[in-house]
Amino acid sequence: IQSATSPRGDEMADLAATVKGVMEDPASSFWLKSMLRTALERDPVDALNDALLLAGALEAQLRMIFGLEQD
């Protein structure tokens, strides 16, 4: 039985391609690659939750700096 939220084979291939793409992209920062490597070693739920919190905090900081409206 497969969970509705667990990736199927094609989705796993897409995920692997995405991770590989980020890691091989010369435009990806050293910091991003390092954080991705670290995140892949963690519990995926915890890693995603932390990444979403980080993205939200960085967006809030950017909006504050540039005086942009909050959504």
Shape: extended
Distance between the termini: 40 Å
Number of helices: 3
Helix content: over 70%
| pLDDT < 50 runs, ≥5 residues | none
Structural class of the secondary structure composition? Answer: mainly alpha
What's the helix-strand series? HHH
Computed over alpha carbons, the radius of gyration is 16 Å
Describe the largest sheet.
none
The average pLDDT value, as a whole number, equals 87
What does it look like?
This protein is mainly alpha-helical. It contains three helices and no strands. The longest helix has 23 residues. It is extended, with a radius of gyration of 16 Å. The chain starts with 8 loop residues before the first helix and ends in a 5-residue tail after the last helix. The model has no long low-confidence stretch (mean pLDDT 87).
List the helices and strands and how they pair.
Blueprint: H1 9-24, H2 30-40, H3 44-66
Summary tags:
71 residues; single chain; mainly alpha
Short summary:
The chain contains three helices and no strands. The chain has helices spanning 9-24, 30-40, 44-66.
